[in-house]
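sanity check this record:
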Amino acid sequence: MKYTFLTLISLTMVHFGFSQNNEIANLLTKAKQIHDKVITIDTHADINVANFTPSNNYTMDLDTQVNLPKMKAGGLDVAWFIVYTGQDELSAEGYEKAYKNAMSKFDAIHKLVNDIAPDEIGLATTSAEVRDLVNQGKLVGMIGVENAYPVGEDLSNIKKFYDLGARYMSLSHNGHSQLSDSNTGEEDDVWLHNGLSDLGKEAVKEMNRVGMMIDVSHPSKEAIKQMFEISEAPLIASHSSARSLGTHSRNLDDELLMLFKKHGGVVQTVAFSAYIDTDKHNAWNSAQMDIHRAEGEKMGIPVLSRDSIRNLSNEERTAYYEQYKKVTAAAEPKIAELKKSVGPVNVQDFVDHIDYMVDLIGIDHVGISSDFDGGGGIDGWNDASETLNVTVELVKRGYSEVDIEKLWGGNLLRVLDEVEVVAQVLQRS
């Protein structure tokens, strides 16, 4: 559904608990004017190649958190589509399988911008291309690689990924890769490299050389500190929040945050409820799951745990989610009632993390991301169509248009430019 401005105002008033008066109308009008003027960039949206076919694609308002209709409805200009590969064995066979998976996702993104919807969205690889596409009235797709596992032991693949449009990459995901330890090592205090492997250190240098931003959202703390020591270019965290407010290993503690200030990088605050407020997230999920299980039992549809869903094949998982949608639809009235007593993590909680990091490291080093279609989403910003709500909360808290432009993408594009400059210098020398 494409919302009109008046519909958005009404929905936003309800979400933020506002009464309809001139003061609130002025706030929302100001937010909408700023939102339409600045370039809004979300640095992390996962994809499924099944949604990039002629008959099933992002020109349709699919049951995904990001697609072109939702981006237009919410005023989201730029989505970084993610070439994600899960961690597997560190073997030639594992690397080959991972490389094929990565190529399928690169192909899907290229198909969207070149074949399916070239009049609606274009692929950008530089800040100038982003601005040019926005000025043409087009949406923008960019590419990030989540987990360098598909690189294998051949660092020439970094240049191949760059040539395919990738402009950031993380050296690990959930599990230690051949290049870097993962934050998941905190669970059992078992590490593979005590930071970066020797190959990982060379990978950092090669990413600097080709001009690809280094993403530290999933590696371990020690690996991140080593990346800061080695890299000649500023780093990014494509989807992480503040550990002081959310005690999760995926978040960045104050020591790491200060390194972004020192080296000029940017942290893209992530709207992932478990990272924003773990206790609140767990309480809400537990209460919500009880309702879903009860509704599922009435309908004869079992509601599975996350671990059980992960163990399903792709076909089984797709079939399960089709059934699960019936359960969630039936449960909607009770879920709405539940919000009155057990509140979900929301936009206000999310912007608390932005406030914290801006206060600690400065407005020039903080940005915004969702992790949509990869587990992200909060009450008030649960898909791209609700993107305006984030700007409303920023305006409500007194952020200026200049501040909001930086948070919504200006800082990220600045880092992208700085990484390119470093690459040019290294290539010349």
User: Anything to note?
Assistant: The longest strand covers residues 139-146. The longest helix spans residues 401-428. Confidence is low (pLDDT under 50) at residues 1-11. The beta strands are 41-46, 78-84, 121-123, 139-146, 166-170, 213-215, 236-237, 266-270, 366-369.
